[in-house]
Amino acid sequence: MVARKSTKKSNISADDLSKYYRDMLLIRRFEEKAGQLYGMGLIGGFCHLYIGQEAVVVGLEAAADEGDRRITTYRDHGHMLACGMDPNGVMAELTGREGGYSRGKGGSMHMFSTEKRFYGGHGIVGANVPLGAGLAFADKYLGNDRVTFTYFGDGAANQGQVYETFNMAALWALPVIFVIENNQYAMGTSQKRSTSSPDIYTRGQAFGIPGEAVDGMDVLAVKEAGDKAVAHCREGKGPYILEIKTYRYRGHSMSDPAKYRTREEVQKMREEKDAIEHVRELLISGGHASEDDLKAIDREIKEIVNASAEFAKESPEPAVDELWTDIIADVAPQNA
Amino acid sequence: MATEILMPALSPTMEEGTLAKWLVKEGDTVKSGDILAEIETDKATMEFEAVDEGVIGRILIAEGTEGVKVNTPIAMMLEEGESADDVDAAPAREPAPQKASTPTEPKSTPAAAKAPEAPKADTSPDWPEGTEMQTMTVREALNSAMAEEMRRDETVFIMGEEVAEYQGAYKITQNLLDEFGAKRVIDTPITEHGFAGIGVGASWGGLRPIVEFMTWNFAMQAIDQIINSAAKTLYMSGGQMGSPIVFRGPNGAAARVGAQHSQDYAAWYAQVPGLRVVQPYSAACAKGLLKTAIRDPNPVVFLENEILYGRSFEVPKMDDFTIPFGKAKIWREGTDVTIVSFGIGMTYALEAADKLAEDGISAELIDLRTLRPMDTDTVIASVMKTNRCVTVEEGWPVASIGNHISAVLMQKAFDYLDAPVINCTGKDVPMPYAANLEKLALTSTAEVIDAVRQVTYR
């Protein structure tokens, strides 16, 4: 892990801190609820929870502007909530219901929102990396200054197409931020056992892409690094790599017993590095919020999450006719 | 209020499990994320975490209990201020049934059950009668289709290996760089997987990419992006987002280029819902269909053929000539047998039809042109008239386009068939290099004639 930087409080307002706390807490409580619904058999198939990694996406969303795009892998619920997608629509997609973002046809790994410029939810490890560069290609071609956040994991970082993409993104100076969410385990294989170099971000050097490692358990450090990367891309200097060192508390998916690491390792992370606790302490110690204020936020989040679970249970399964729709488009979709 | 903690499902297939060990006891205070118990599934022993905070009031299922059904209450959790005595330690009950999905028959059923009825074939001409014609090679036709569409729509661009400065490995993109510049005619590194993915992403970002593969053989490196990313996204997104992109390049055998450069992918791609698949034969079809492909909101696999690039055909002189997908072309009408082909297979089919005519056998010749959607109506209507059918393609015989047509005819025109359908295909071997063996590995005019004689018993 990267040592936690001493937090610069000067340029972070109480409102910002409070928003980060709220956004991260929403993801955590949402994911816990999803885990619970999975346990009840209401969510099927694969379900990859984001618990532990909340600071990554919340910090980077704080660095994003209106019109910027984002695309990620299958561990995608946190990204959707952080970019403002409706928790009801996300949860109902997890239960495979009509009220879901893909009307129940995508599932946990396949949701999209062109309105929020969220381009999925992709289930093939590494495949979203060229797709993200392609979104950035479109922005450059269209002559705007938008940036695309392309998230992938330490496991995907060993895929060949990632390096094909690094090469072309650098060659064509595409405005894409490659966000490597390094949670240290590619499913059950630790980084040590799968990856030849400890610092994945340095692989960009071969292509002339600057990059840095960031403490992913510190939302302020993530935001600061995100600001720098965004500025680099917006100035037309091409891609940037952020390797964000983070940690997932749960298994790879719901059916992962996680025997490849010790319980103590997970507990240590939770107790000493938890990103939400960190912001909570900053809010209290800085006098920005009282315990009661935070309890009120907790209650509010709990209500949102419970409502999403209720919505996801009540929403009907898709009509049987849906089996045959959305295979071929008759008119051009409003992608951009 | 006390809440029940239920036996969780911990894998996609788990229905029951063993409550191996409790890690908490009655009266313990727990918070979200604390491990409550170890549960054995059919695959592994999993830790089960608390979701809410509270106090463990009662443990309802003792550790070591086997066969605990998913959703059975295993403990009671108390909220702040409640005591265990407030809670009626209800005996373990059967799990509440979750809302089961009952699949009902969708409205659009496969056509299998329908009684055969003569379909209406769309036999309208591709261009108005009396249109002025010009002679053009397939290469020129493809080139002019792209140039016209790039003039018409600024979001159309082409990327691929050697498409710009080299003017195209097969010169299909000749002069496009001069006219449209390097922003819209883009040379890529030799990284099919990567640039196919970038193309799909660009199509989501508001552009209309044409991705040229130097040959479709190299696109096997990129097939994941073509199928998983381009073809499936409209469906996976519930119709929110589609991929208006054309993947094009030469497909199938050329001449003496060996096994890795000679595969016909028609049947592979034709199997994929969400794709359009086109394999033109003539220059006019190549032009009209490529223009349609570039305008289509869906991903299009456009399969060309190197040997056909230099062949000349009559092409209509029109400001805007397009051909719709899903409309076959009847090259000649006949009464004794229906020959169905597409792409370069048409060269054998046409030659065979000429020779058969000399012997008094009248063949009706259908060029499918698009393989998805496939105009089976035209084929069925023809077979209902001729009662016999031979299919012709260069691809492999197993799960071929001909196999599919045979199945459709069995379902929809069984009573009209006077002979089994014969599929003339490439042989079930990798393409050999030796000239004599390569010839044998492909289908041939002689094979088509022989097949027609078999089905007509003449």
What report would you give on this structure?
The complex is a heterodimer of chains A (336) and B (458). With 336 residues, chain A is of the alpha/beta class. Chain A has a single domain, classed as Rossmann fold, CATH 3.40.50. Helices cover 43% and strands 9% of the residues of chain A. Chain A has helices spanning 14-39, 54-63, 77-82, 87-94, 128-142, 160-171, 191-194, 219-234, 263-273, 275-285, 291-314; strands at residues 69-71, 148-153, 176-182, 185-186, 189-190, 211-215, 240-245. In chain A, the strands form two sheets. A five-stranded parallel β-sheet of chain A has the order 1-2-3-7-6, with helices on both faces. In chain A, helix 4 crosses helix 11. The mean pLDDT of chain A is 94. With 458 residues, chain B is of the alpha/beta class. Chain B folds into three domains: 3-81, OB fold (Dihydrolipoamide Acetyltransferase, E2P) (Beta Barrel), CATH 2.40.50.100; 133-316, Thiamin diphosphate (ThDP)-binding fold, Pyr/PP domains (Rossmann fold, 3-Layer(aba) Sandwich), CATH 3.40.50; 329-456, Rossmann fold (3-Layer(aba) Sandwich). Helix content of chain B is 27%, strand content 22%. In chain B, strand 10 (156-160), helix 2 (176-180) and strand 11 (185-187) form a beta-alpha-beta unit. In chain B, helix 1 (138-152) runs parallel beside helix 7. The longest helix of chain B has 15 residues, at 138-152. Chain B is elongated, with a radius of gyration of 31 Å. The termini of chain B are far apart. The chains are: A alpha/beta (336), B alpha/beta (458). Chains A and B meet through helix 1, helix 5 and helix 6 of A and strand 5, helix 3, helix 4 and helix 5 of B. Chain B: Residues 2-78 form the Lipoyl-binding domain. Chain B: It catalyses: N(6)-[(R)-lipoyl]-L-lysyl-[protein] + pyruvate + H(+) = N(6)-[(R)-S(8)-acetyldihydrolipoyl]-L-lysyl-[protein] + CO2. Chain B: It is an enzyme of class 1 (oxidoreductase).
